[in-house]
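Bit of a strange request maybe. I'm writing a small parser for structure token strings and I need a real example to test against, not something I typed by hand. Could someone generate the tokens for this chain?
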Amino acid sequence: MNDPLAWKHQAACRGMDTNIFFPERGGNTKRAKAICAKCPVRQECADYADPEKFGIWGGLAEIERRHKWAGQHRPTRPSYEDLFPWVPFQHHNYES
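Reply from user aminoacidic:
Good idea to test on real output. This should exercise your parser:
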């Protein structure tokens, strides 16, 4: 079986507190980017991240990712649950 997220097992951030990579608006991104800078799968993470609007992925913030993909075909990606199985995601139904 070919797992499109096999790269995540080599990620430098694996098992870390995801809040490091999702700072508050205007928050410091240096720590996350420093971790990403040493990551062996940085490119795979950056490719996965688009069109994500929040967080640091592959060492890039949302605006940096937007510039990276400007005018290009954007890849599709699996769900957050597949990427971060250790995080208990809560799904909200805003239609109610």
